[in-house]
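FAQ: What does a ligand-bound record look like?

Like this one, built around S-adenosylmethionine:
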Amino acid sequence: MKKQFPDKLNITLTCASGVEKVLKSELKRLGYQDAPVINGALNLQGTAEDVARLNVFLRTADRVYINVARFAVDDFDVLFERVKSVRWEDFLPEDARVIVNGKCVKSKLFAVSACQSLIKKAIADRLCGVYGLNRLYETGAEYQIDFSLFKDEITLNINTSGAGLHKRGYRDMVGIAPIKETLASALVLFSDFYHERPFADLFCGSGTIAIETARIALNIAGGVGRKFAFNDWKNFDQKIFDRVFSEAKDGEKRERKLNLFASDIDPKAIKLAKRHAERAGVADKIKFSVSDVKNFKCDLSGGTIVSNPPYGERVYDKKEAEECYKSLGNVYRQLDNWSCFVITSAQNFERHFGKKCDRERKLYNSNKECRFYYYYKDNKK
Ligand SMILES: C[S@@+](CC[C@H](N)C(=O)[O-])C[C@H]1O[C@@H](n2cnc3c(N)ncnc32)[C@H](O)[C@@H]1O
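The answer part, i.e. the structure of the complex:
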């Protein structure tokens, strides 16, 4: 019989800094109660089925890892012996192509490439011993081992996702300063959006926030349009994946009627956004238009704006960005009982928007520190 993964796995989920809370809520909704945060990552115990579920369903996690070891280390001999003592054969078949990547932060062992080669050698020694090989042939599927050495403690993880989970598969061309799909989803999940209410992104660019909103509203799981590293692993029972995938497809609510609006001043951006929405399977759910923010009007009440306007740093200068915030504030105040959620790195956003926010949250967009401003319904004056 083909060797399968162990029954109990330590699973580690990474996400952007500031997003942990919404990821925890996602986990709760999927039925996972407890996921303590260690070094910025969420940890839980599960099975191979959980690995598949988390990859397919989660919207805000960056990657799903199997954690295989965590120990203190400050010299190369200990690193080699401890890595070699890990039961790699439980996860890696004899033809595994082993790729080791990682980082060293505030640790005595600080040379990443030296750690990388030593870890790879220790894994190879272990597997050759167990499988009776004179060397690793590496003719099979790729297994990425990620290590993180932080303050002389190393964590060794197997990456089950492959490419980051923000790569949903629908965005094939790059617009101006696009936001990651995982962060876009987090913004919508932090907001008060509900599928029966209107929604608008008035700076939609390549469409990411509106597309993620549509997928949330239609209950289309985060990872249904892509493959994962474990799909290539012969020791990962693909029937498990098929089951989880069917569960995700069965849960979709594609028949829902939505009122989603997405606009941008740039016609090229709207063309791209429409293309991405088409590829994401939600083109008929979003009303796209080329429009300056200042012209937005909507007769519907009780909606939600979630937007990522220009920050005034790259393509648009500071003055143009400030004009956008001012127009957004004016538009928001004309709408009937809408809320508004805006991410920007601009320090003076509230002044130009014309109102102090109800609350704010620190988030990072492509490593840039930003604030996510909340303006709730019925609180506009
Ligand atoms: C940071 S980008 C948004 C990126 C988008 N979230 C994405 O994922 O592609 C800001 C967008 O604001 C648009 N923009 C700039 N000034 C505008 C205005 N006055 N009205 C509407 N859109 C504007 C730009 O064309 C640009 O696409």
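Follow-up question: can I read anything off the structure? Yes, for example: The first strand starts at residue 9 and ends at 14.
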